[in-house]
User: Fold these one by one.
Assistant:
Number 1:
Amino acid sequence: MPAPIRFITLSRAFCSLQGRLLLGLAATWLVIVGLLLALAWLFGKDLVNETNLSHLRYEARLVAEGLNDEVTQRQDALIRLAEQLNEAPAEELGERLRDGQALLAWFEGIMVTDRQGTVIADWPVVEGRVGLETRNTEYFPMVRHTRFPYVSEPFVGRASGESMVLMLVPRLDEHGEFLGMVGGMVNLERSRLFRGLESIRLGEGGNVGVFTASGERLFPASVGDSAEDATEWRASPQLSMALDGWQGEVVVEGSGRASALVAFRQIWPANWVVGVTLPDSQVYAPLGDFLRKLWWVWLGVALLLLVSIGWLVRRLLTPLHHLEAQIAQVGSGQRRYLELATQMDELRQVADTFNRLEGERLAALTDLRDREAFLDAVLASTPVGMFVADLDGRLTYMNPALRELLGLSETPLASDWWQRIHPDDRVGTQDLWRHTLHTGSDFMRQLRYLDDREGTLWLEVHASQVRGNGQPLGFVGMAKDITERRQQEALQRWEAEHDPLTGLLNRRGFERRLEEALAECTKTGTPSVLILFDLDHFKPINDEGGHALGDEMLRRVAQVVAWEVRRSDHVARQGGDEFAVLLPSCTLKQAVRIAASLRQAVSEVEVKQGARTYRVTLSAGLAALHEQDATIEAVLARADDAGYRAKAKGRNAVVVSATGGSSPGDMQEDVDALFR
């Protein structure tokens, strides 16, 4: 049989009642099987995730503990060496380093600096190393001020050309005075530090990564790695959390890359992060194989069931073939009514019911056409933009006024109309429209429409259901341009919550956002910090330079403060020279660093009048939001009290509120250390 004839025969078979019953049975079976497979996949996926996350937790802990031991041993060795060197004269330091030859099993080289950061001895001797200045490096100020061991950011060695880090410890005399540093250079590519990680096997796709707190990758060594692999690690959103101190395990959903299971652990002595990852292709492969086998079993059962039911349906539906043929003739216009000669009462009842409904349908169709003609005339003559939609929500008509408003030459397709609605308003509008279709209630919504001529229009759309003889016929609606009104409302809202001089939030707008942050803290425990500060030495600017110069200083301070904080933070001018900064989702430790940067930035702001230059500083108080805070007044009071104490310390200071336990006090020590 030719292929076209076989295709037509199959099409007719599936258009019959028998074919539809069989097709419906097959579809039902496929849906059931699909649901069962989906449920098996979901529950199996959770079980597989739990098992593999436990495995990753174990692996990450082993890696972290091993690296902790390696780093601690090296730091302890450097501390012992520093204690020995403290007793030696400067001219004997090189000889003492040679006596510590055993340390070269751990380090590529050893160096010693004086209290100013100048290298005064090294071993093995590298030409040009003695005399190097380290005072401007990122590690010298850290060791000098903290007096704790520190591991530097990775750098490329001058002699080897390979990636290295410096492990540094301070040299202190018997009074605790800083004498310099002792540093050991670790080759990241050839040392034993990461050698144990190279033997770890996590399947074909799993891997281990080690990062510094700044996000620089240490293992696999960053020098020579592929850019694609490095980018994949940096794209992990959980890596950013781990760099801030978080550790744990999580399933990372793919966003432009494959999903994976990831575990992070902290290497606290070196301020490093260990990441262990397994791709989902490796994790879910056994579960997928099992479900594929199960699918083929169920498919075989479905085929046997279809053959059996098909034979039974053919026997039962034989009397209906004549009825089916006449219904098809009525549908194609070959006859107007059914005329069955049969002894089956059921078939005669079906035929009578069909004929009655067909007569009612023809009458309703005629009436509907008359109504459509009348409606077309009314809508075409009205100056208001109006449209007509069917019961499925498809636009069937737009009057000339609406097409002119939207810049259209003809009624658009339904898909074109929805695509021209602004993406931020599209989903909500579609949900409300579906609700209107389902309930028959009125549709009322303000939305943005993308107009090719003028950009974005604000429209107010109102649609109502039209009914005839108690039955819904469709929807008729109107659209009005409210762009100018919306723009005016937006301007009024902005002016109500912003300071006209600086463009920052005013007290009203800031307190609303503070209340929202307090509600979030109370509900979910999200940490947030409030900073209140005013400007020191601001009054002379107004008194000597005038209010115009004072206003210029306020504007410049507002600019640098807004530049220094994060995009998610809120900056406000409370009045006069008083400012406030709200740091949502921010720890007190992070807030201290931000306050330090604000203090430095504000101290660099200056205004001039003639030959006179004016500068200001700030006195700031920090207060963390607590879950037990009932109102924002409690938070404001703590921050305000801390600000008064900053003034009392001599201005140009940052004070952390003492309320909330010992942690703020410890944080105040960090603040004082930053400003020393």
Number 2:
Amino acid sequence: MAIALQDSAVHPVGEPIPPYTDHAISVSLPKWEDNVGYEEGDPRVLDVMQTGYPRFFIHKNITKLASICASKFGTPSESAMLFPTARSAEHCRVFVAARSVPARVTHFAMPGPAPTTIVYAVLFPTSEFGVPKQFWQHTGLGISSRRAEHCLALLAAHSAPKAATKNKHYTVKPPRGVPSALLVPAGSDGEEDTFERDQALFLEERYGRNLSAQAAEEAKRAMKLRIAGVLVRDERGEVEVGVSVRGASVQESDVYLYPTGMSAIWSAHQLALGAIGERKSICFGFPYTDTLKTLQKWGPGCHFLGNGVDSDIDELEKILADEHARDPSTPPTLALFTEFPSNPLLRSANLPRLRQLADKYDFLIVIDDTIGNFVNVEALPYADIMVSSLSKIFSGEANVMGGSLVLNPARKHYAALKTHQDATFENAYFDADAIFMERNSRDFQRRIAEIDANTEALCDLLHAASVQGGDASSPLTRVYYPKYETAANYEACRIKRDRGGRPGGFGGLFSVDFSSRAASAAFFDALPCFKGPSLGTNFTLACPYTIIAHYVELPWAARYGVNDTLVRVSVGMQDREELVRGFEGALAAARAVAAAE
């Protein structure tokens, strides 16, 4: 069910998005000044933050569990960061130790029925919190808020006295299909807590349409089949499997699920390093911030070609030729990472030309298709590895994190990648998260079609009213959208007709730029929609992207066209006419401010 624009426009700063959602992955920053205040540490904003994007804001459930772990295993001057596996915790310890911060790993076995739930903690000096926090943000490997909630519930159940039950017929029973551990957050002991818990659970459950906890593996399998593109029919409990629509002979066994999209990207880089060898990578196009950080901070580093246009491929060819001439016995690079299209400039790389270079110089191509998504584009044939954030449009509900990694069986290094991946992969995706993600994703193709149509209507309207579109007097200078940016490159991979006869769309994300920050702020403040981080939501969501993602490096971002006046919009499923009216009003506000400047 879509959230009406008028219901989202007045959402207070610091409140979760979606509202009343314990595991929301966005947070309301409704005014331009709120985003600046967040980045500058303004208590007016920080003191009311109830949640935030999970890799940037550590959820209160996780903070509480980490505090328990630190008090149990650490010293008074130490804090803990929590991970689902021993290996991920050790990766964090190594990262922290390499930056001259002492750290050690311990584990915390939760009381409760078998199998035992274990959390791994990295203990470090509290004064050095920023260093392990980098690892948490860049890798996305930390525990999820639902895993923390589950652990807190086990601890609470173990420590709480057993109350006598007078009549078993009057005891409270969990809703059918809901993991009982999710129903008892630590510290709940009153009717008000029970009401709030039940209300939150009702909203998450969406009328009980969920799987049982015992069906988590089946949920993961269903998602892998969807991502592999082999499902001919996937509705009302009826499943029919056919040939993959991904453009390669992908099978369920070629798909791997991760706790977050960023952990899939980080793991793709680790997979390449482990299976192929230690060499520099290439970051092609201006990427989401942590992708570049991953390539820079792990392994031998990377070449950064930040514009992502065809002229950058000319520069890349020269780099490759020079490296090959220096040492013809070794491939000049390990892997090229690119987004299709990119975030936030919606540029699409020339994948056929990059593939030719990869085959010539024997390197991998890793493509992030989160924004384009495989309903709209067929990019896998050009990739060795495909990664995606399932937290975005695959879920749509903004209440659960997840990521995927797909190996292309048609590529030269498939056998080496597959062998290494199967030997090292850890099934760290928490069962409850998988259950919610599976439920959310059942209708993702229908939602994408509706969102694509809404987005194209808005972008056509805004493009016509921009300097780029011919209105020289407009404060709106440019609309970044695959229909207008590197259009030929996007068109080369756009699906012409899917199984249902629908052509691929241009996705649900676009960015707009203005002639001044005042005009940008006026436009943003006037938008009648939720404002906060993340994208790919079923409801419209906007943010001043460069302010929120690159505030400490604004001049650097501007070198690649990512200006501090940029507003990024993820379009939802609201009524199209209402969306158009809302964006027309925001543009009018920008025009008024620009006229007064």
Number 3:
Amino acid sequence: MKDQMNHGAHSDAGASFFQNLRLSISDPLIKLMDSIHNPVVAVDSDSRIVLCNQTFGEVVGRTRRELLGAPIRSVVAETRLTRIVETGETESARKIRIAGKAYLANRTPIINNGNVVGAVALLQDISGIEALADELKLSSSTNEELQDIIESSFDGIFVTDGTGKVTRLNRAYERLTGIRRSEIIGKTMAELVTQGYYSESVTLKVLKSGQPESLVQEVKNGKTIMVTGTPVLNKSGDTTRVVTNVRDVTELNRLQHELCTMRTLRSHYEVELNSLRLNQGDGQYVIRSKKMREIRTLALRIAQVDSTVLIHGESGVGKEMVAEMIHEGGKRKSKPFIKINCASIPENLLEAELFGYAPGSFTGASSKGKAGLFEAARNGTIFMDEVGEMSLPLQSKLLRVIQEKEITRIGDTRPVAVDVRIITATNRDLETMVQEKSFRKDLFFRLNVVPVFIPPLRERAEAIVPLIYHFLAKYNKRFGFSKQLDPEAVDILTGHGWPGNVRELENVIERLVVITAGEIIGITDIPDSIRRTGGVGRMPTLSGRPLKEILEEVEARAIDEALKTHGTTRKAAEALGVNQSTVVRKASRYGLRSEGA
């Protein structure tokens, strides 16, 4: 009862105080309060608003008329002015949120005649300061993260400001150079060069040029490092920092050496694997002589790159076989392998075969046109045998294909891109032909990037016996026979000069398998041209033989010699003074084989 009476007395005293205060406040004082930027509000002992400035009204979104007499809690739910009225204690710098904004509040009791008659609060908007604090906190976190990233880098990182003063470096830099950050932080690069820490400074070069710079640098501990400095520019284009990346050249050289070694080993293993694959394949390659093993190894090495290859060798030595090895041992092995004998196709048709033609481009041309062999070999390999037989105009077009990697069909103007590996072969002396101006010099150099010389069979006699038994097995299997060679017959075959090389040997073995009556192929079954000393160049024995047999033997030798000398049935026919069809028919009859038409 007594407390209620005291509260009533205080309330009356407060009411009287604020009534007298309102009467004493003049318009200038009200204007002065409203000019205060910070919100101000006062309450009486009943926590009702008795005084506020215009800024406070703006903060809570009400007019002064609406606020006066209203309970403070109905305006600011989190207010502590009520507590100040109750305790009479002062509170300083307490954070409060009003309408989503942060304020710092200073609250003071109003005392009259020793009694607490109310309380007043002065607020300070700290939203901007709070946002700045959050930004600083984020910036600090980002800076720590950036420092962690720099420190975790394997490469050395070294940073200076726009004057060349060292501001930051990481542990990797200390590890690579042996220089501690305590030695150089805060010093300029000009000082450090003078003191002998560095032979020269990439930072100073960057500051001078304004561009990224690199150099090989010697540091204090004797190490050699590769450094690359990069400028950091502001909006005005001025250099504010230089960031330098550092790598130990010794370590880089070691890695590069290891990489080269691995590539060499890989290439070696690829060659060996391809060699094993060829040796364990279907038996189509019989390689016994040292020279041919060397050629096989060379072919498998060549297969790993796309350089143009020119294979030199006499007719029948196996140029096509080597070309197949190169194709099968390389990355194009799953793509087409197209073969063409340039001497076997008439000159007027060879261009169309190689490059194709547009619809109706010449008499007899298909109405749909036709793709040439270069297009058919796209992404694969084209093997052009007897390339020395090409005419000069056609040589020019082949040169363009090699240089431009595109062809143009006959009768068309649109070029067609072709990605083709070119392997060529010849049994002629192209260098002599270049001197005689029957073969283009520039084309010869383009084709002869990687030359491969295949020796004749007479220079690798150790291969003859394995080849004999290889072809014997091949034709026994083909024709369903099981014929064998008499050892003396093998000696005769081994002693022959084989001017037609492997092709001639294969033809002879096929003929012996086919025409020999018994199971054993003996000396008497071998043709006289091989059995008799002197071979093809000697005249047959005349006595005791029918004239027809003698004439046939002479005819066979003449055609055989002409084919081996001139290479094609067309040229052999011209040399013998007969029609090409006659040479083709009789060569077939006698089991002879030519390079082509």
Number 4:
Amino acid sequence: MAGKPSLKGLPKELLTAITILFLLSLFIVILVPVQIIVPGYRLTTGFRVAYNIITTGVATVIARFAAGEIQTQWLHYINHEISEVQYQVRGNPGIAAKWRAVLGIAPFMERIKHIRATGLAELSIISTALITTAIVSGITLTDTTCESVVFPPRIHSGADNECTRSVANSSIERLSPLWEYRTFWNRDDGSAYFATTNLGCPSWSGSSNMLSINTINPEKFAYARNGVAVKNSAIGVPEIFYTDFPKLVEPLELPYGHLIIESNLRTVSHCLPVMARNPIQCRAGGNVTFHSEPGKNNISVDAGGCKFDQPDFEDPAGPFGIMVSRLCPTQNAVGQANIAIGATGIISLTLAAAIGDTDFLTKNANKYDGIRNGSVKDLTYAVSCSVDVKPTIQWRTVTLELEQGNLTTAPSYSKVVAGEEGCSAPMNSSATWNLGDGYAAGAVAALVPPLSEGRYWNGMTNTIFNIAVKVSETSDRYDTVESWDKLVRKAPFGFAESNNALEDVLGLTTGITMSQMSTLNSMSPNSPLLDPRNFSSPVVGNATFACTRVGSGNMSALLFTIPPLFAMAFAIYLLCVVPRQSTKWETSRLDDLIAIGMASEREKNMAYTDDHKRKSGGEALGALSLGALRNAAVNTDGRDSLVMNAASPGWGERWITDASGTRAVRVPDEKEIESWTAGVPSSPARARHEGHHPTDGVK
């Protein structure tokens, strides 16, 4: 009988294997929520190859060690089974099948046939075989993103500068020959806030900024600057944000870490001012009057509280018509203004298409031929727009995403800026969120150049119309309502709340100009925008960059713990069920396997001799022939065999063979042999031949 499991003599190697498997499973579990980052600058192809080779080698050693210890314990278990049945391995095929299964040499059909005997052993071998795969897959290098804290860029505070500033006496500033390209917000005390489009100021680019507006798919982004697409949620974000990337430091090695390569950047986020909604609203309404006589043409517009009278070279009553537009700043309110636009002739139909006035187009489109032939001369149209920039400027968390551009769509950009409402709390109470009047003043002043286009000629704002209307077929005759409807550009627009294309174009122009308040050039000593204040967002930003972690970090990675956990479970099971005492036979020792085979052959010969004795009436042992005595074996105690060997020193000597070897025993005569073997229980093989149970008579 096998002994009960004991804590004494526990196999140290098996305990080591259990500990290693447990720590391995724990490590794979920890890799799911915890990132172990490999510094990005080390991730060369050679490093990855070396990592894979080393991890595979280590995993193979661990798997082989665990498999060897589990196999050894199964063999110990089989040794005890063999000890219980003695030499009757042939009568217990399950033992043989299990032995071959543990060694991994069992035929497939035998494994199926003896699945009940070999199932656990097979599962333990499979689980250990999968340990290498589990380790390599569980700790593989996975590309991911990491975060780093970054300081926000220096932005313009909106303080006074050469482009936007307060002036004590506006009349003196108006003496410039280009005074009409300067915008003044007059105050009651005679002073004014001044914004100019000269001297390289942002407002100078108002007309060219319109060309950056996206009219193809504005729902994707509102405009593009410097190869960066700016979404509706980030209109007006300081341009320096995406043209001057911060120098990032790897967070694991702060503050003396390695600088992150710019190409590894994925996102950069800061709290920055943006134009949250369209500051301009345009609607039809107002009066247009004109006077025409040889050498003296004049047109006047009065809309939305803004009046302007303008002489023109072209005849207002001519077939094509003329146009007048003017921006009127609001008294005592920097950033507020009204725009009045008036037109005659065919230009009036174009202006109506720009704001999507389909009612006017339906009523007057049929007058197209009459206007061209001069029979219709009184067609006019007026539009008024209100402007208020300051309330639209908000601080938002703006994120620059560096992604792979989709070349299947047009236009396509690999850098996109988007914003989210709100920012985190300021870092300190002394920080300020206030921006000066320069932002609003510069943004509004940018409308002056495009609104002044064509002045003194025909006044048509070609750049504005080029963006505000949709010309799909230049060969169309605009003598039908359908042809004019084709020119109307409908939503979506850059600003989600824009009601028509004209106000969207004007609003985006102010937003793009506002973004140019903070550029790399604006921070240089020679810039007219030079801000004497070192102004930044009061909130520290953050960035994400490409990095590589050990393990995938995905919950599915927990599946990789199954093989080592199963192997550990089988190891613990064998630790509990395998008896600790030693056995006579060890199936892992070649000499023991040979001894078992020899003993089995002698067992068969002994059974044959017993049958012969029973048939001959129980003749005495001494009467056996010499050949029978050479191979006769008597089971003396259930373990040893007594044999006669012709090579023994004399007939009175007998040899006993067991697991410890063969030794000679002196037996004086046959009667003593008979008395010696009398009453000894039969071996299992002998019992089968004699027809009774091998344990009969055992006391």
